[in-house]
Amino acid sequence: MSLLPSEPTEFIGFVAPREVSETHAPRGPVIDSDYLRLLAQAHEWGGFDRVLVASYSTAPDPLLIAAEVAAVTDRIGLMIAHRTGFTAPTVAARQFATLDHLTGGRVAIHAISGGDDRDLAKDGDHLTKDERYARTREFLDIVRLCWTSQTPFDYAGEHYRVAGGFSEVKPVTAIPIYFGGASARALAVAGRHADTYALWGETQAQVRELIGRVRAEAAPHGRDPRFSLSVRPILAETEERAWARADAILAETRALRTAKGLGPAGAPQNEGSRRLLAAAAAGPRLDTRLYTAIAAETGAAGNSTALVGTPEQVADALLDYHDLGVRTFLIRGFDPLEDALQYGRALLPAFRDVLGRRSGAAEAA
């Protein structure tokens, strides 16, 4: 894969309205405005391109949290998780286009169909996973029509029927759509709509295989998506200390799960988690730096694999994925604020330095 200036690498961080992680029970009020401001600004100061605002059934509203992030920062982009199906697509399209204007074009959407039936049931959604992906396809069809159509449009699908749909407000520029999901139904939606396809931190072999499948689904639509990898860097001054820190994080994760009365994680419902657990079954350390033990401990409930080492070693590992076609890295730590600061001070500069040296060597060859 050529390393061209026209293929910029994007770094996305993660913000939440209070401190919580696999190693920290929730601290502070449900919405801690001071913590949210510090976390958002730490990412901006560190040179991140965007931050993800997550969504789950009991969380504060991600669109409103994203608006607050924009208010306390100057330039950083917003990757707003949105569960398709809970808001009419015409309404959602206008909401995101409006926020895009108010923030000067900083909005992106991470379209979520939902991988856990129990969590979705809390919001009254009882469709099957396949039905949710079909709904997502229609939802995104309509959202794109709202953003681009210069005249009213009609749409007739299984889940949505729109007569004379139109939005006066259009995005500042095209709002990027991020999308993940590894099942066959998910990949079909990705091929049709994903501007960036999101993978979790799998092995290099798994990433290579899945990128190929997504490209095959996108080709009939004349589309060429970017690819994102989500991973949890664990850094230290030496490799030995980094692995010791990884082991300590695993121990803290186990202790917190025990304190919460959580037993062994059950079988996951989504294909992405199953793929992570398949990797973990091959061992806790793969591809030199990929650490899977925390994914195994938690049932791979979300982004839970790590890259372990010094900043330069982890940067090298990220570049290995870059060579496979990954151009976006979604990274977050187990100590969210402290790790975001460390990534900005050490990991992002190390990555750019290694990428620059590799690009220079490739041009000289």
TrEMBL record:
Keywords: Flavoprotein, FMN, Monooxygenase, Oxidoreductase. It comes from the Bacteria. GO terms for molecular function: alkanesulfonate monooxygenase activity. Gene3D superfamilies: Luciferase-like domain. Residues 11-327 form the Luciferase-like domain. One of its GO terms (biological process) is alkanesulfonate catabolic process. Pfam families: Bac_luciferase. This is LLM class flavin-dependent oxidoreductase.
